[in-house]
Amino acid sequence: MIRYTFRGRLQQLRFNSTKLSVSNFTDKEVSLNIEGKPITFSSIFLRDACTSPESVDATSQKLFTTAEAATKLEINLPPVVETTEEPTLKIQWNSNGQLVNSSYSLSFLKKNLTSASRRAERFFDHDKKLWDKSELTNNLASIHHKYDSFLNDDKTFFNALHNLNRYGLCFIDDIPRPKLTEMNESNVPHWPVAKLADKFGYIKKTFYGSLFDVKNLKSEAKNIAYTNTFLPLHMDLLYYESPPGLQMLHAIDNSTLGGENIFCDSFLAAEHVRLQDPKAYEALTKIPITYHYDNNNEYYYYKRPLVIEDPEAVGEFPKIHTVNYSPPFQGPFEVGATKDDPAYEMFDDFIRGFQMFENFINDPKNHYEIKMPEGSCVIFENRRTLHSRNEFSDANGGDRWLMGTYVDGDSFRSKLRVGYRKYIQ
């Protein structure tokens, strides 16, 4: 039992739990002992996190603003710990004259002890793995899933999500051939790739449409992907403010000569640069690359560095949030071009890092190459996994028809978190 003065009155506070207790408090902060470790929480944080009926409605939406809650915020009664099924901190607030009763479970408090604990149920860094040709080839069986099971079995769907988080790609097999022969916006829901995308929530429609056919359109092509020429490693739609998180490509016909798909882990390449030349890597995180699409009565534009880090990432996996690499859609650089530009000297470091990155991703030992079987679909993270395609020829009378679509990364991560909550945690 401890003694303290509360607004001029001598108070006594009893330790209510060996796992959770209050050691001290003021209107500004609350000091706790959580499983033997001292921690002090901001009162504004605690009040803002309140989920009482006065604070959050049935839809889990807040009924107040942070600024409102922080106005003349006081603790009205001494905080106590109640122990029923789980030790729970109870605080009655006086927020600008309004009394609010708040409860904070031990699990909630533990979850918010550190940035790592707050992140744990949201990004699953510990399950991510860098890969090269050898790593992926040795684990191919684990990243292949059956079409019917993906659509109808929640555990298979989660396994696919898990692999997308782990390696940035997975494959769906045994897809029945579509009964339709021509795609348009009115029949989108009937295509297998649309059904795969719908499992994540919704399709990200772009100026290519909800779905897009990847065929050899020759002179009609508005994108190099719609020709039979070699397509270098790249990511899609980096000229968008919010590029899609996932891309799907369903091989309907794939009997031409060549046309193999190539995939590469851009995170492994970025980490290679960081380990070999930290100064060059730093430049890759700071010099923005211009991306644009100015064609077919469309003009898109955005700037972003090659590597965007995630400083809150934990564990051994690199602190990389996304990589942005798409040479076919690069525009002129807008920094470092003239000597009076502050980034001029750094541009040499950037070019050195860029060259190291490209040399690494173009090394076949870092590629996974596959002639996609008809009736299969690859799903890959567009902000991590680089994709390419070899040149192909229909001289053998073969045909090549892939159908693609996009899904937002938010939809993927939402389903991933729900799956972890159900099957792992």
TrEMBL record:
GO terms for biological process: carnitine biosynthetic process. It comes from the Eukaryota. Keywords: Dioxygenase, Iron, Metal-binding, Oxidoreductase. Coiled coil: none annotated. Its cofactor is Fe(2+). GO terms for cellular component: mitochondrion. InterPro entries: AlphaKG_dependent_hydroxylases (IPR050411), GBBH-like_N_sf (IPR038492), TauD-like_sf (IPR042098), TauD/TfdA-like (IPR003819). CDD domains: CAS_like. GO terms for molecular function: dioxygenase activity; metal ion binding. It holds the Pfam family TauD. Residues 137-406 form the TauD/TfdA-like domain. PANTHER family: GAMMA-BUTYROBETAINE HYDROXYLASE-RELATED, OXIDOREDUCTASE AIM17-RELATED. Belongs to the gamma-BBH/TMLD family. This is TauD/TfdA-like domain-containing protein.
